[in-house]
Amino acid sequence: MAFLPNYRPKQLSLGPLEEEILNIIWELGSATVKDVHERILADPDRELAYTSVTTVLRRLTEKGWLTCDKQERTFSWRPLVSRGEAQAIKAHEQLHKFLAVGNPDVVAAFADSLDSASVEQIEAIALRLQAARKAREEKK
Question: Where are any strands of DSSP class E within 15-80?
Fold first, then answer.
């Protein structure tokens, strides 16, 4: 699992086309509107205007997922967070929402429903929590 990065996008929620285009950018590392448009149109059943790709890239930039570089007359977009970092950020947000319920019985019921692989992950998390608590106590 990736660490929780210091940087996080301004807005985490993404629409389906935004997610698709962000995935293309992650795959390519950096891309122009033409690169993304061609990748989407590689599916013969898809239609999407070039200007729509431009709009979505601009929106992803405004939301803080991408940055745009200009070299001469060409604009190129690249991600500000990796796919792994994005997964860590989203998981962190979901965990906070889950724990915001504030009911220990709900959390315990969730833990009871886990399979054995998940229980091993929970045990690993518990060890990390113990280490974090110990480190905080040593700082005091």
Answer: 66-71, 74-79
